[in-house]
Amino acid sequence: VLQVHVVLLPSSLISSYNSTVISYLPTGSHSLWALSTFIVEDTQFPEFSAVVMLDDVQIMYYNSNDNSISYRASASELSESEQNDANIVFRHKHKSMKYRALESKTHHNLTRGINVQQRIAGCELMDSSSSSPVLSWDAFNGEPVEELIFNKYLNTMESHGLWPATWNQIKQKTVQILYANLYHPLCIKTLKHYLSKEKNRVIRKVKPRVRLVSKDGGTRVSCLATGFYPRHINLTLSRDGQPVDEEQTTGGELLPNADGTYQMRKTLDVTPEDLKESHKFTCTATHLSLDNKLDVSLGNSCNITSNNVYFICTLLLDVMLCFSKNR
């Protein structure tokens, strides 16, 4: 089900989520996001569907065919009252996105074909237990059309885009009341609920394994960090102790691993002039799991895992036992 939903998301909205939402979240914070899709015209997919994510872990799914919430196998369910609140939110999202989609369809004079309205909305919680504004982005056929930001502490609603520009004061106030009394408290409450239930999964820290290698006869230097969690990481390539400008490197995209960890690769093309000189290239990684920054040079790697340590200790113990017996 999740795969179907993600397939429907255009690259522009996925890019918005990755570049805007993820970069917005400070290191050490936790977030709850709903990725919703409304489809105009009949297709093999539900008219409306939504995936709810705690950080990068899917916790629930909703679609208009069943009008009910499906939970990830190991996720704990909400209480009856909380589930009723969640159903109200999903039904309201369905209704509002349908209205937005039909408005956009008329605005663009689209009379036929499949059209898609999408929304990313959610909140985040800092380690200090302070909460962020509720954020919401809408897109129609892959083009951003609306942005809403509700700040609980200032009791303000910022709105940008095609449709908010047409709202009068009554409409603006109605949306603000909805966010203040339903969306914000329910989002934070649900975030705290699942954060306590899933803490072993989302609060875990796994150290990255980092390698710096030379490729294509020395014309490319590539740094790979893999197996780390959480997803926030900084990789810096340096030449003779000086950081290389990001414009000179390629890659840098965050990619998932099958085990729930992440990987990132950055590559530098070495110029013919650099090849003539004896430069020292290093890769520096900073991550929540590391007490200090990790520097790796060409020919070295840092990928000692707990399994490696166990193997080495066992081998040393066997050697010591054999040595004592021989004595």
Give an overview of the whole structure.
Helix content is 33%, strand content 35%. The protein is built from seven helices and 17 strands. A hairpin with an 8-residue loop joins strand 5 (115-125) and strand 6 (134-140). By secondary structure, it is an alpha+beta fold. The protein is elongated and about 70 Å long.
Defining key terms:
327 residues, alpha+beta, Murine Class I Major Histocompatibility Complex, H2-DB, Chain A, domain 1, Immunoglobulin-like, eight-stranded antiparallel β-sheet, five-stranded antiparallel β-sheet, disordered N terminus
Q: How many domains, in number, for the residues?
A: 2
Query: What string gives the helices and strands in order?
Result: HHEEEEHEEEEHHEEEEEEHEEEH
Number of helices: 7
What structural class do helix, strand and pairing data support? alpha+beta
How would you name the CATH homologous superfamily of the largest domain? Answer: MHC class I-like antigen recognition-like
What low-confidence regions span 5 or more consecutive residues with pLDDT below 50?
1-26, 301-315
* Assembly category: single chain
Rg: 25 Å
CATH architecture of the largest domain: 2-Layer Sandwich
End-to-end C-alpha gap: 64 Å
Pfam families: C1-set (PF07654), MHC_I (PF00129)
Protein name: Ig-like domain-containing protein
Domain Ig-like: 208-297
InterPro entries: Ig-like_dom, Ig-like_dom_sf, Ig-like_fold, Ig/MHC_CS, Ig_C1-set, MHC_class-I_related, MHC_I-like_Ag-recog, MHC_I-like_Ag-recog_sf
